[in-house]
Amino acid sequence: MEQKRGFDRSKVDDGIVEKVIKIDRINKVVKGGKRLAFRAFVIAGDQSGQVGLGLGKSKEVPSAIRKGVEKARKHLERINIVNGTIPHEVIGEYGAARVILKPARPGTGVIAGGAVRILLESLGLKNVVAKSLASRNPINCARAALVGLLQCKNIDQETALRGKPLSVFLGER
Which residues lie below 8 Å from residue 70, measured CB to CB, with a gap of 6+? Predict the structure, then answer.
């Protein structure tokens, strides 16, 4: 297998789905004029509880995407999923972005927009409702959703931490 500057091509077929969300053109003003570069925002997930975000910058688009993919794969986060949804309602905040995530009944599907929808689908959630408030920036909305998802608690860990049983109903209604 061919290797290019730290990017191992053999890892490409490991079940992780990568999606490019946004490519921006960046101008840096220097003494001789403007320097043009590109920024790529990528979401990677294995559709079974792990997801990561990556932001790559370079003078060419393909290398910016490659760097974003590498960062997203490197920073995969494990999220608590219960029966294809999240265990409880959470609110994630990042910068000016706020995202509300709510569990949904089976058959509802993923109701979300933009980068948050791609993040939730890459994570492997089947039934969840999300609403982005305040900021419309896809990078900040995705990061706010990830912050919210990281707040999802596990019932076994909470029971052990508190030392008493919790009366939570996680079955079908």
Answer: 6, 7, 54, 56
